[in-house]
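Students often ask why inverse folding is considered easier than folding. One informal answer: many sequences map to the same fold, so there is more than one right answer. In these notes we will look at a single instance of the problem. The structure comes first.
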């Protein structure tokens, strides 16, 4: 486990598996995604594969207050399941997680999201709007 960034009392750590964080992750995702379909935690369990980079924001005694993972592909990857605990939203924890992912993973980073303004501030561009109203966005993330 690497600590990659420190934001006040919050550390951003990177792992290559979900082992050890599952109970904490379930409660975090249920708090962050309260509306239907409410199955975000179970979708992570189905879709996450060991080795995919996991980024977590942790505070005292390893309590997880932020999470995202990257599903890699040959040209970059898809950022999945970004979530920040409601008590810690607005403190740049979500931005720090995304910035760490962009720092560590070059290529075209994709996201499908309902919060396009948040991602635009981090360099993502909208490509199109899906029929369900969510936004497909990309961040061309290359060394200059
Ligand atoms: C969206 C989310 C990850 C943002 O994390 P956060 O740590 O609260 O955001 P930050 O403090 O880093 O915000 C950075 C900037 O984005 C803006 N922002 C944050 N959430 C926003 C939202 N929902 N809509 C519009 N702008 C938003 C902030 O106002 C801030 O703007 P500023 O730089 O001009 O001050 C968090 O609110 C969350 O987990 N929400 C519930 C789950 C969710 O919607 N996840 C995203 C799915 S892809």
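Output (designed amino acids):
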């Amino acid at each position: 486990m690497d600590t990659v960034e420190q934001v006040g009392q919050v550390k951003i750590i990177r792992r290559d598996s979900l082992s050890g964080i599952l109970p904490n992750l379930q409660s975090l995702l249920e708090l962050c995604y309260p509306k239907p379909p409410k199955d975000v935690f179970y979708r992570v369990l189905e879709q996450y594969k060991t080795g995919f980079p996991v980024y977590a924001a942790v505070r005292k005694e390893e309590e997880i207050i932020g999470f995202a993972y990257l599903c890699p592909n040959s040209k970059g990857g898809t950022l999945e399941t970004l979530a920040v605990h409601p008590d810690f939203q607005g403190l740049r924890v979500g931005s720090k997680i995304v910035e760490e992912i962009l720092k560590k993973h070059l290529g075209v980073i994709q996201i499908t999201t309902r919060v396009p303004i948040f991602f635009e501030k981090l360099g993502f561009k909208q490509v199109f709007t899906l029929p369900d109203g969510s936004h497909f966005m990309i961040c061309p993330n290359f060394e200059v």
